[in-house]
Amino acid sequence: MTVLAIVTVAVWLLAFLIPSGQYDRNDKGAPVQGTYHRVSSGQSFVDRLNDLFLAPVNGLYGIRDTTSGEVGPSLTGDLYGSAGVFLFVLAIGAFITVVFATGALDRGIERLAHRLRERGTLLIAGVMVVFSVLGTVEGFAEETLGFYGLLVPMMLALGYDRMAAVGTAILGAGVGVLCSTVNPFATGVASSAADISLGDGIALRFVMWLVLTAVTIAYVVRYARRVQKVPARSLSGFLPGDRERTATDAGEAPQLTGTHKAVLVVLGLVFAFMIFSVVPWSSALTGKADATPYSFELGWSFPQLAALFLCAAVLVGLVARLGEQKTSSTIIQGAGDFISPALVIMLARGVTVIMNNSRITDTVLHSIEGVVKGTSSGLFAIIVFVVNLPLAFLIPSTSGHATLAMPILAPLADFAGVSRAVVVTAWQAASGWMNLWVPTTAVTIGGVALAKVGYDRYLRFVWPLLVILFVLICGFVALGAAVT
Q1: Average pLDDT of 337-344?
Q2: C-beta separation of 134 from 112 below 8 A
Q3: DSSP string of 236-253?
């Protein structure tokens, strides 16, 4: 939030120096390449000061005037603010919190780990697949911190080391988030900012998720087996007592009650229905972007999805028999826990309002247009990925990063003749790749601390995988750009 507050003031000051200009727009509102021209912003100093003051408000429910294009809270036109995404984040936060309050998800993962405790390779692969699936559909990452108390003893009992537990947790969930298919906090926010459907590009992201998850699991399993055969090759080393643990130290298998099973079924059905509701099936199956939608397509967006997760939160409360009071308080708690990413989205959108009202967005876009000219679509997609790496470091919030970057990146895709969905994929891959190792994320620093592994040793462990993933990502986004 502090970074975005500084960015807001910095952009406001730069708007005094950057000349105003605009592109002509087509029927869909997208800028037409080669039509940029200088215009006057028509703003006085008082107008600009008012924009700075109202930036967070406009970022939430600013209305864009259909005639002037100016954004303000009391104008008439289309919603420009992020109110829809804002409520969606709170709704899914409420749903996830209610699910965790039932204990079903924790118990399910614990039971899986316990049942595979004597089959090390399957244990690592099974847990990583579950974490990766949760990461790709709902941004599961920080939640892994609660499983180190289970994973570390399990790995040590199987003859592995603490680094194997760190790799299983951080990389399992991290690669899922990197290849987010419908993750609302990454793909969802970015798709909204790029003005495309959440389901656009899901085929490419799904294949990418399959390949990168398999590669990451193979990497962690290979390391764990190596340590099991030659303990001296452990990068984390062993603490006193680590080598004396046995598989029986894992305790009794946690039991799944009928309620837990019912909650897990509801969880799976809700996310499956979300995927079904947002995928443009006619375009996905025919390969034609302008294909006529099938009769069963829902074409849902953030308003409907917010309602879905609010209803699902209540349904889980009923299934788990939490009672009216606990269900209500847990929904409120969940919305409160997720207010931070929601506010980040609002603040980032406020920055784009300042750029819009001072009419410098198209000027910035025009300055980059020359870079796009003459580049192949594949190279353009790789450039988008690389350019977003330092931005992901400066703005570790995926939601804030997406809201800030997409208004510039999405029109650039139009100029390069590349699908906006490919730009979303390249952006989220950059954000996810950085979050596998940067020290500004709680997932990484918290994970190595809980496992009692040095951060420097974790970097030694993960850097070869980072190189492999970097190459694969570049290949996938280049291929996606070429195909579209």
Answers
A1: 86
A2: no
A3: S---TTGGG--GGGG-SP
Provide φ and ψ at 37, rounded to 5°. Answer: -150, 155
- pLDDT of amino acid 332: 96
Alpha-carbon distance of 333 to 217, in angstroms, equals 34
C-alpha dihedral over 305, 309, 312, 317, to 10 degrees?
-170
Q: How far apart are CA 114 and CA 356, in angstroms?
A: 54
pLDDT at 199: 84
Q: Could you tell me the pLDDT band of residue 216, with boundaries at 50, 70 and 90?
A: very high
Each residue's pLDDT tens digit, 368-427: 776 666 778 899 999 999 988 887 876 767 877 888 888 888 888 888 888 999 999 999
Letter string b/e over residues 228-265, b meaning 16 or more CB atoms within 10 A of that residue's CB: beeeeebbbeeeeebeebeeeebeeebebeeebebbbe
Token representation of residue 123: 């244990």
Q: Residue 46 CB: number of other CB atoms within 10 A?
A: 8
329, 38 contact by CB (below 8 A): no
Contact between 264 and 108 (Cβ < 8 Å):
yes
The pLDDT tens digits for 302-332 are 889 899 999 999 999 999 999 999 999 999 9
- As a whole number of angstroms, the distance between CA 423 and CA 191 comes to 10
Whole-prediction pTM value? 0.76
Residue 187, exposed/middle/buried by CB under 10 A (0-12, 13-18, 19+)?
Answer: buried
Count of CA atoms in the C-beta half-sphere (13 A) of 367: 9
Which residue type, as a one-letter code, is found at position 418? V
Classify each residue of 168-180 as buried b or exposed e, where b means 16 or more C-beta atoms within 10 Å of its C-beta: bbbbbbbbbbbbb
The answer to whether 117 and 158 are in contact (CB under 8 A) is yes
Q: Are 133 and 213 in contact (CB under 8 A)?
A: no
- As to burial, measured by CB atoms within 10 angstroms (0-12 exposed, 13-18 middle, 19+ buried), residue 439 is exposed
